[in-house]
Design a protein that fits this description.
Helices cover 12% and strands 44% of the residues. The protein is mainly β.
């Protein structure tokens, strides 16, 4: 009897330890796949043909915290940052539809769409407009 119990426990442990986490792709993306805290970096480049001002920095760091109800965005601006010089924190509604993450203020019908360019369990690449990208890394 003891041998059977030990064998069953070992079998259950083996099955549990061999199960792998679902690999997130655009095709199987669910809202829950984004839940949690992510480091984020906003990146852009100067317009083509525009001279580069060495006092302007084209990146900004921050965090995005997705929960069931809201997305909290913390953006760490600084002097010379093209995105802004202040540190900002804002909580907003969010939804995922197909390849788009939309953030929407209360009462706003359309919101701001971010195209999901790449996604995995640990990283996400979003595109806001033609030349603004967000790189998220899961914490």
């Amino acid at each position: 009897m003891k041998t059977n119990s030990i064998a069953i426990i070992l079998l259950v442990f083996t099955i549990i330890s061999c199960q792998s986490k679902k690999e997130v792709t655009l095709e199987n993306l669910e809202r829950q796949d984004l839940l949690g805290e992510w480091n984020v970096q906003w990146v852009t480049k100067p317009e083509k043909g525009q001279s580069v001002d060495p006092s302007i920095n084209y990146t900004m760091n921050g965090k995005m915290i997705f929960n069931e109800e809201k997305l909290t965005i913390n953006a760490y601006g600084y002097e010379g940052c093209i995105f802004g010089s202040d540190t900002l924190s804002h909580s907003i509604n969010w939804k995922v539809q197909g390849d788009t993450l939309s953030i929407v203020n209360d009462g706003d019908e359309f919101g701001i769409p971010y195209i999901i360019r790449e996604i995995s369990n640990e990283k996400v690449k979003l595109q806001l407009v033609e030349d603004v990208f967000l790189f998220l890394t899961k914490l």
